[in-house]
Amino acid sequence: MKKLKLLLILTLFVNTLLVAQETEEETKHLITGALGYTFIPSGSSHDSQEEGAFVPSLGLDYFYSINSKWEIGIMTDLELGEYLILKKELNRENAFLIAAIASYSLTKHLNISAGGGIEFEKHHNLGVLRIGTEYTINLKKGWLIAPGLFFDFKEGIDTWSLSLGFGREF
Q1: pTM for this structure?
Q2: Tens digits of per-residue pLDDT, 72-120?
Q3: What region does 12 belong to: left with phi over 0, alpha with psi -120 to 50, or beta?
Q4: For 132-170, how does the pLDDT look when each residue is reduced to its tens digit (9 = 90+)?
Q5: What DSSP state is assigned to residue 89?
Q6: What domains sit in the chain, N to C, each tagged with a CATH number?
Q7: HSE, side-chain direction, 13 A CA sphere, residue 76
Q8: Is 152 in contact with 143 (CB distance < 8 Å)?
């Protein structure tokens, strides 16, 4: 009976060490830089009165993993261009968006996300609600590639963007 108790205690101790070792190797942080294009259906370039404008964008994101399914983070995007919103008579130039985001892993590679923030621009700032999805392709040593699709609802100036993120988990 004493040997059985000793064996049980030893097994629990070894199991605890193994679980602790696995936890230490888990990554908790993710930083991603992204290149993309934002489509503004109600936007127009300065040299055209037709609706629909594509603007290149850069992104920098940080996420913290709460558990295997949930992450929270900050997403930032900088639109590198100028366009008009004809319906609202707004000129938009190099708009900078920052949003607090919650992300949920549907599968090992597919995430959905939602959150809110502000788009800063010298003529008029806008509140933003963002929803989106990313597909993560894991590379070696914590590196990853993540194509994404995002929709931004901005006080009647809705946009969508496609991006390609390059990131590192640590």
Answers
A1: 0.80
A2: 999 999 999 999 988 888 889 999 999 999 999 999 999 999 999 999 9
A3: alpha
A4: 999 999 999 999 999 999 999 998 889 999 999 999 999
A5: T
A6: 26-169 (2.40.160.20)
A7: 10
A8: no
**Separation of alpha carbons 136 and 111, rounded Å:** 8
Alpha carbon of residue 44 to chain centroid: 27
Tokens of 30: 């993710």
d(CA 99, CA 128): 8
With 0-12 CB in 10 A as exposed, 13-18 as middle and 19+ as buried, what is 41?
exposed
State both tokens at 8.
């049980």
Q: Residue 105 is inside which H or E element, if any?
A: strand 96-105
Q: Flag whether pLDDT at 11 surpasses 60.
A: no
Cβ atoms within 10 A of the Cβ of 87, count?
12
